[in-house]
Amino acid sequence: MIAPPNLSNIILPPVNKITAYLQANGWKISLYEESKTTVWTHTLDEEDLEVILPLKENLRGYERRIAELLSALSVLEERPYTEILTDIHNSLSDIIKVRLDSYLTRQGTIPIKESTKFSRSVKHLIESAASAVNDSRPYFAQVSSEVSKYLDKVHIGHEKGSYVAVIFSPTDQNRQLTIPNINSDSFGRKAVKKLATTISLICEISEEVLKNDDIDVFVSGVEHGISANMCDAIVDLDDSGHQNGLEILVNLSSTEQAQDLIPRKISLPHKYMPVLKAAARRLKSLSYQDVQLRGKVTSLSRPTDSSVGKVVLQSTFEGKKRDIRICLEDPWYGQAVNAHQSRLTVSCQGHLVIEKQSFSLESVKKFEILDDR
Predict the structure, then answer these.
(1) Fold annotation for 291-369
(2) How far is CA 291 from CA 20, 222, 353, in A?
(3) What residues pair up with 40 in beta bridges, in sequence order?
(4) What is the residue-wise DSSP string for 32-86?
(5) Where are the domains of the chain?
(6) Model confidence over 152-180: pLDDT tens digits?
(7) N or C: the chain end with fewer CB closer than 10 Å?
């Protein structure tokens, strides 16, 4: 046995993560002392290795026991204890890597003006997959509370030597001394699987569209998790990497047994991006084909030589106040002018189009002033 490492300046992993790592790597409990320690064994070349794991971080000798445990694992796995320590810290997380491919990113850098966009796009990518776990929509206008709680637990890091975002998606944070969960996936695991399978499907459909020029094929993918949000996030990531494409890598934690095979490496070349832009527009157009809005007219404009005027309606849509742009001809534009002057509420009906955070109502079927009295 090699000498135990000095861990005095290292953040030690909690018991539940060490437990998860040992279970996932074939160690067995040979002795259990409630609230005190567990003894774990593993056979190497017909010789039993043994480590002692205290069950509480505040127990006397915890650091020494963890050092001995890491030393044993280093012998068994034939790799430095620092690598093992990193894997233990990540043992309750699925790992997603988003790799940009350009000359600059291969040097491990990215222009500072793109870094904010990159991080935001990574968040939107994970958010879109999580939103599709329990709900299939062509476009998600807002984030559910379940998805928001999940995102609060997701962490992001950076891989050395290249520009790769490393996302840590939690599986079962409360794992104790149990076997890996084989009955059901945690929400985090479902989100990661949805991400991998949906992006893989996006690649297949993009190739098909490039051959047949039929963007409506994306509509059939909505029930499998494809959304305008995910398409937009992928395009924005590609823009961050100077339009050279990107790569998604998925590594599932072994603390939850994977029931299905999923793609582990997915490449998205830049040639897909015009297709995905068109797909995002098409999917958004499906979302709100016949929407009725109520609100106040906040601004008006019409060139003297035009019959079409531009109106901004402030209305509540999906729980938030939005400024909706509308193009109207007379007599509806005249009604909008009267409503604005008298501060009256109006009602209008049409096809709501959403581009990023911009809202407009097209193909207007109805516009009228409501009686506020």
Answers:
(1) OB fold (Dihydrolipoamide Acetyltransferase, E2P) (2.40.50)
(2) 50, 20, 10
(3) 29, 51
(4) EETTTEEEEEEEETTEEEEEEEESSTTSTTHHHHHHHHHHHHHHHHTS-HHHHHH
(5) 15-89, 93-286, 291-369
(6) 999 998 876 567 889 999 886 554 444 44
(7) C
